[in-house]
Amino acid sequence: MRTKISALLASQQTDIEVVAKGWVRTKRGNKNVTFIALNDGSTINNIQIVAESANFDEELLKKITTGASLCVRGTLVASPSSGQPVEILAQQIELYGAADPEKYPLQKKGHTLEFLREIAHLRPRTNTFGAVFRIRHAMAFAIHKFFNDKGFYYWHSPIVTASDCEGAGAMFSVTTFDISNPPRTEQGRVDYAEDFFAQHTNLTVSGQLEGEMGATALGEIYTFGPTFRAENSNTPRHLAEFWMIEPEMAFYDIDDNMDLAEEFLKYLINYALNNCDEDLAFLEKMYDNDLRERLRFCVADHFCRITYTEAIDILKASGKKFEFPVSWGLDMQSEHERYLVEEHFKKPIMVTGYPKEIKSFYMKLNDDGKTVRGMDVLFPKIGEIIGGSEREADYDTLVERMVEVGVPVEEMSWYLDSRRFGTVPHSGFGLGFERLILFVTGMSNIRDVIPFPRTPGNAAF
Ligand code: 4AD
Ligand code: MG
């Protein structure tokens, strides 16, 4: 049995026989001794393997190059050099697989993130992506822990659905055909039928609508799954396939919703600070000098809460020249959001009371008849990290809104049942998982925080 390198490096015991397995990061040495830095993904740190030339076949040592995979048996000893607590004096080395230095693309240090995106299938083997994906895991675990500790149930909304939660337009359509005998066009190409077993369906843009059915039965639920948006936007903040966490709570009003969103984000950031320090320290050194300071700053104080109307007034009074116009009724663009967060308030803010025209049909209408109880959470460097609302619980008002914006009332009859029968005030929000990971890792492109990013023209691997 192997011991993970993270455990070996933390071992209190030395002069014991151990087995380590992993991939070679670097090899150096002279004709008497070879030093191999071995990594197995359990930590950003490598363990040093010391192989004395006299004990090993020269051919074997030659084949041990960057990227090769090894099984090493030896003695764990205190390391004479200061960079590491322990090292392994190798007795036996088995080469699982060589990695031809002429062909293995991760040879030299210091590849650009752009280059690594072209080899997304191999980049988890780099220090940067090891750190990012370990943090991504820690955040996923913390999300489940947070909600489980609060008595929320993990709820599975469907991926394939006939409804359009956000009414945002572009969706991925799901088609079916018999693979052994697909319909063909006159030119002989596969003719993709426009339906899912004779019903038009798409990949979900959000699990919220089905999540509301969970909340109005189980009380408090959360979804955590992949969601899809077919918008053709090439930005550092948008993916066509992203993961979303959507808590939905019966008996919560918009203020309860904001309290939960703030507590949730602070919990996750604190979790990262307390559990991912080595990886955060590495990313800070490499990419973002202020990373941990910014994380600590964001959890130290209350998030600012303002209305959309106040936000527009601040933007107008700023005297700043924005590319997009600022006017009550228009959606805020990311330059506006970033001005508010980074230059005006200099901390996370939550904006409520948006004009109903720029928000989804399900948001609760305020008494003014003009604004809705939507809330966006805006973060430094990210912009919108959460979008949510109190939901319209009144059947008639909701139907009126659906008709106004053209949501098919008949098809959504199942959704309206939650308002027909035993309707309750309820609220929820959606946290973009990759936007959270962007914030916590300090990375600047969303393509660098998900193993296989899906963006326009990018689905090969
Ligand atoms: O603001 P959005 O569109 O809200 C909803 O989908 C609601 N149904 C959520 C709810 O109330 N249950 O999306 C929520 C969050 C955004 O704030 C953003 O963090 C993220 O999802 N998001 C994206 N992340 C990456 N790529 C995209 N294309 C994204 N679109 C939204
Ligand atoms: Mg939004």
UniProtKB/TrEMBL annotation:
Residues 133-451 form the Aminoacyl-transfer RNA synthetases class-II family profile domain. SUPFAM superfamilies: Class II aaRS and biotin synthetases (SSF55681), Nucleic acid-binding proteins (SSF50249). PROSITE patterns: AA_TRNA_LIGASE_II. InterPro entries: Aa-tRNA-synt_II, aa-tRNA-synth_II, aa-tRNA-synth_II/BPL/LPL, Asn-tRNA-ligase, Asp/Asn-tRNA-synth_IIb, NA-bd_OB-fold, NA-bd_OB_tRNA. Keywords: Aminoacyl-tRNA synthetase, ATP-binding, Cytoplasm, Ligase, Nucleotide-binding, Protein biosynthesis. It is an enzyme of class 6 (ligase). Signal peptide: none annotated. GO terms for cellular component: cytoplasm. GO terms for molecular function: asparagine-tRNA ligase activity; ATP binding; nucleic acid binding. It is found in: Cytoplasm. One of its GO terms (biological process) is asparaginyl-tRNA aminoacylation. Its EC number is 6.1.1.22. Its main location: cytoplasm. It catalyses: tRNA(Asn) + L-asparagine + ATP = L-asparaginyl-tRNA(Asn) + AMP + diphosphate + H(+). Belongs to the class-II aminoacyl-tRNA synthetase family. Homodimer. This is Asparagine--tRNA ligase. It comes from Mucinivorans hirudinis. The lineage of its organism: Bacteria, Pseudomonadati, Bacteroidota, Bacteroidia, Bacteroidales.
